[in-house]
Amino acid sequence: MRYKATIAALLAVFGIASTAQAQPAGIFDREWGDVQSRMQSEVNSRCGRLNPIRATPCRTDVRRSFMQQGLVPGTDEYVQRHYGSMDVQSLNQNIMRLNRTYGSARHFHVGEPSGPGEVSYEMIEYDINAIRRLIEARGGLPPR
Prior knowledge:
Elements: H1 2-22, E1 27-28, H2 30-47, H3 52-68, H4 76-83, H5 88-99, E2 118-119, H6 121-137
Antiparallel strand pairs: 1-2
């Protein structure tokens, strides 16, 4: 009986250790952290005294205004603001740079806890795909 309890405890410890190692440390962007702080300040000032039913659309409006300014990674506006003026070669170099970050980015969704300035795997993936669309819109990469 004691033998089974010991094995169960060992399996639980090793299971927890392997789960903890499965999630990467994350990627943090200081600019995105500053935007998040400004966005939260805006939410507090505009939506802080509203009841929960009215606060939700207010928070959505604040986020939408930051997205429209091109300040939220993982949006077309962000890609246009940060990469829109680049030539095809520079865009391709940025795709290669972003591809190297995949292994360090965490998968998380809106509402999940993340550190200030943490960029999700999904944000990076969206940016890469949007940059690819920019390259295609400009005629694609030249042949090698």
